[in-house]
Amino acid sequence: MVAVLTGNHYEVLGIDARATPEQVEKAYRFCLEMYGDSSVALYSLLDPEEQRRARSRVQEAYEVLRDPFRRHEYDVSQGFARPGGPMSVLPRPASGPVPVRTPPPPPPRPPAPQVLEGPVDGAALRRFREQRGINLKDIAARTKIGVRYLEYIEADRHAQLPAAVYLRGFLLEYARATGLEPLRTAEAYMSRIRRPKDD
Amino acid sequence: MMEALPAVMPAASSRARRQVWSVGGGKGGIGKSLLTAALGVQLARVGRKVVLVDADLGGANLHTCLGLAGPPLTLGDFICRRVERIEDVLVETGVPGLRLISGSADFLGAANIKYAQKVRVLNRIRALDVDIILMDLGAGTSFNIIDFFLISDVGILTVVPEPTSIENGYRFIKSALYRKLRGAAPTEAVRSIVDSALDPKNPLGIRTPLDLLAAVEREDPSSVAILKQQMAAFHPRFVVNQVRDPSDVAIGHQLVTACSRHLGVKATYAGYVPFDDAVWRCVRQRRLFASAVPDSPAAQKVRELARGLMQGESLALTW
Predict the structure, then answer these.
(1) Is residue B197 a part of any domain in this protein?
(2) With contacts defined as CB-CB under 8 Å, which chain B residues touch A29?
(3) Which pLDDT score is estimated for B239?
(4) Residues with Cβ < 8 Å from B225, sequence gap 6 or more?
(5) Which range of residues forms the domain containing residue A132?
(6) Structural domains of chain B, count
(7) Which residues of chain B have a CB within 8 Å of the CB of A45?
(8) What is this model's ipTM?
(9) CA–CA separation, A42 vs A56, rounded Å?
């Protein structure tokens, strides 16, 4: 299998971490065309399935980098930016980038990771996620956590979930992927679980 | 037997003299010979002493591209030592500063010239009073072609925006690179890994040079650095010929990106030449478009291409 696209979101789009929104946009279009079904340049190098996977990696990278908030969060997670430090790109007031063959832009996001009010259980997580228009497959693709486990988390099926140490990691990833404050979300969820094997 | 390769000379310096450039591409009928001839004319026009070498042994027609009749003596006569001096097979083209060593029409096509003979040929050509030796490599990926490409200081890879040509282009890159790596393989084990990579259905699952490096890493980690060094020194320059629209122009950038990401090869995009009716009208009149219609779009782009190649510049993605 050819190594399709490895590396971080910037490497996937072939730009550096200081790229402007315009550069992100242009790089994205270039990659879409390059990995598109009618691309001539990749002929015989990648098979259709590899090309499809490359496209979805490009899409994934773009979805994060086009959004100033998600991009900042990502930069922090990759060590490109400090938590609470300046964002590499300032969010635009109104117009936003021109969408190109992409799903409609997600609703505008508040700047800081959110903290859920009230009990942090599966249902609360799910409500928050759905408000943000994020589906479980996106989270699974981003976090490499199986969709099934994400479903168990949201359904509070604690018995099916792995040991606390792993579950905590899942929750941190889940929170980052949805825009929740990771630590507090994970702690709040964990605190509601009582399982014999964890005591 | 491996002989010492001629030293690669740095571009854009006083030692930039006597460079060998070669034009390959894997596929036939994509305009290699016309491009070579036009580049030669342009280089001569800006004052370089150029010798064109038709290394398309078996399908030589560079002379026709230049509007010349087939010369009586050819490169084949020199290789077979029917003539002693390389000067004996050198002809004037009518363009000041541009001379030609013609290939033979039907002689060496099937014969495999030994590596040492190729080096002898190039060394004798390099000894001429010349700045740039510009070789037209034929179609295909035979050792004759690939070795000349690998010996060159500047290896130009011509493609047209069609799947068949792109496929042959990638095949050419892999064949050339594997041959280079094989020559540098420090151990028998590494050499046999390289050999198995040549078989597209190899049991190691090697499909690209990156896979090959990974396989060597597993077998003999100490050899990886040498192979990586060879890969870094392998630097094909793409020319996209017969370009019809902006998306065709973009193919050059996509090829460079794809080579880097998926093959681990650092290629560059030397330039492109538009599809131009003036070119084929000239072909039918056995005249070279670069001389006959110098303000045609194709001729203009060839001039840019020649300038870029001389200065070691390439088209970069700007965004």
Answers:
(1) yes
(2) none
(3) 98
(4) none
(5) 122-194
(6) 1
(7) 170, 258, 262-263
(8) 0.85
(9) 16
